[in-house]
């Protein structure tokens, strides 16, 4: 402590007053003993000066100890406690120091515990953020004022919420979707779980929403879980369409078989002029039913990857020649020219031999079915550096442009009446698409109404037939 501050200390002046009192008592004692007046004055002066010196030194020592205690009290629990030596200052100071040391130890234990809790809280927070960030579901937490407390990346992407709007904004300000707001209001008002499904027209998404109140009373907020079910609903519609189409395709030949059989049972079996014709129709419809079932099984195996293909080099010229021979009689009966260049380049493709034959058979059969009498179907082949391209081109009725993306779907028919009239299962092009993909290639189609249609199947060339650039 500075000397000027020491002179202003009450402790200092109390010690001085005590010293003066002692000096006066000493002077009185000397006077009673018969000392002279001069001696009394000298004794008084010396006693006073000595008392003041002692008071100064003692108060300075006490002030230093007080300063050190004040610093120690300020740093309690934060850094090692350095307390002054107060043993010579009295029991009162010793008790104060002991209590400070005990308090410091308790505070250090408490701070250490708080630090451990803080570390665990940070770890848990990081873990939760990682989990929520990896979820395919969107998660949003709002309070009862519908202010966003948390939103993961999936939720912000689904609802197109900007990054700086994901917290401290009301959800109806950043996600303008009436179904969300209505579900939130019902949860806040009633506390009951809400499940709804709604559309996001601009994104063409179907969203399933679950909203549940946080578990406290009164309700502190609501957790919203969003799940994109667009693909699931599309698959459900595809499944429903598939079941409907399969049912119809199976029903048609079965109905014909039943009608012809009933006719025979009702007496036509004895009609020599017609009974054979009815039996032939039954056999025809049975074969159609068998073909449909085989195509369904084949497509199911391909899609489920249960079909094991032996991918190997296949000479395209031999496959094309076999396809032409197999369909020549059908083409002639329909008065359709089946044309293939005399010299198809003898390139080698990587494919399963049976699968490649199925691809060509289905495409040629499809072209023959939709090409009127007098038309033509062409089988062509081309190649580039790494790929071979098989083209099946016809001069048939063509396909409307808006229906081209759907022709590879199962049972999809551009002209349902004509398709059933020419026969077929409606699965041929779907099988072509899946087989081509299994062989590492692709298939596409171009068409013009009244002009014709061209299917292109691209498959990788065998390694020894790949052309390397310079």
UniProtKB/TrEMBL annotation:
CDD domains: HATPase, HisKA, PAS. The keyword Chaperone does not apply. It is an enzyme of class 2 (transferase). One of its GO terms (molecular function) is phosphorelay sensor kinase activity. Keywords: ATP-binding, Cell membrane, Coiled coil, Kinase, Membrane, Nucleotide-binding, Phosphoprotein, Transferase, Transmembrane, Transmembrane helix, Two-component regulatory system. This is histidine kinase. GO terms for cellular component: plasma membrane. The keyword Phosphoprotein applies. GO terms for biological process: cellular response to phosphate starvation. It holds the Pfam family HATPase_c. InterPro entries: BphY/WalK/GraS-like, HATPase_C_sf, HATPase_dom, His_kinase_dom, HisK_dim/P_dom, HisK_dim/P_sf, PAS, PAS-like_dom_sf. PROSITE patterns: HIS_KIN (PS50109). Its EC number is 2.7.13.3. Residues 245-463 form the Histidine kinase domain. The chain crosses the membrane at residues 12-32, 38-58. It is found in: Cell membrane. Residues 97-124 form a coiled coil. It catalyses: ATP + protein L-histidine = ADP + protein N-phospho-L-histidine.
């Amino acid at each position: 402590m500075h000397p000027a501050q020491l002179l202003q200390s009450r402790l200092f002046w109390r010690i001085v007053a005590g010293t003066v009192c002692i000096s006066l008592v000493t002077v009185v004692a000397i006077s009673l003993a018969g000392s002279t007046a001069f001696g009394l004055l000298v004794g008084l002066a010396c006693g006073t000066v000595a008392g003041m010196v002692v008071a100064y030194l003692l108060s300075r020592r006490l002030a230093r100890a007080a300063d050190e205690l004040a610093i120690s009290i300020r740093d309690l629990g934060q850094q090692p406690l350095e307390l002054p030596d107060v043993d010579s200052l009295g029991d009162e100071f010793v008790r104060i120091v002991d209590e400070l040391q005990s308090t410091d130890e308790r505070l250090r234990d408490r701070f250490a515990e708080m630090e451990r809790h803080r570390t665990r809280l940070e770890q848990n927070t990081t873990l939760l953020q990682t989990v929520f960030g990896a979820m395919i579901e969107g998660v949003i937490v709002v309070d009862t004022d519908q202010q966003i407390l948390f939103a993961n990346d999936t939720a912000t992407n689904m609802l197109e919420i900007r990054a700086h709007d994901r917290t401290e904004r009301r959800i109806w300000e950043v996600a303008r979707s009436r179904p969300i707001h209505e579900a939130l209001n019902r949860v806040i008002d009633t506390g009951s779980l809400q499940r709804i499904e709604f559309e996001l027209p601009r994104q063409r998404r179907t969203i399933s929403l679950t909203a549940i109140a946080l578990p406290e009373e009164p309700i502190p907020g609501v957790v919203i879980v969003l799940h994109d079910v667009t693909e699931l609903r599309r698959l459900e519609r595809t499944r429903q369409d598939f079941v409907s189409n399969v049912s119809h395709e199976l029903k048609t030949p079965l109905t014909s078989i039943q009608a012809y059989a009933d006719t025979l049972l009702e007496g036509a079996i004895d009609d020599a002029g017609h009974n054979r014709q009815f039996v032939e129709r039954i056999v025809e419809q049975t074969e159609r039913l068998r073909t449909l079932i085989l195509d369904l099984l084949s497509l199911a195996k391909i899609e489920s990857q249960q079909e094991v293909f032996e991918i190997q080099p296949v000479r395209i010229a031999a496959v094309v020649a076999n396809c032409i021979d197999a369909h020549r009689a059908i083409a002639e009966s329909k008065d359709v020219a089946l044309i293939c260049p005399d010299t198809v380049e003898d390139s080698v493709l990587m494919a399963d031999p049976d699968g490649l034959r199925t691809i060509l058979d289905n495409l040629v059969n499809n072209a023959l079915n939709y090409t009127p009498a007098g038309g033509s179907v062409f089988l062509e082949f081309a190649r580039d550096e790494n790929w071979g391209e098989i083209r099946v081109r016809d001069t048939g009725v063509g396909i409307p442009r808006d229906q081209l993306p759907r022709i590879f779907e199962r049972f999809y028919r551009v002209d349902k009446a004509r398709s059933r009239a020419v026969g077929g299962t409606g699965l041929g092009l779907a099988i072509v698409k899946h087989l081509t993909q299994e062989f590492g290639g692709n298939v596409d189609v171009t068409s013009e109404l009244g002009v014709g249609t061209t299917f292109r199947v691209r498959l990788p060339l065998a390694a020894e037939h790949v052309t390397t650039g310079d």
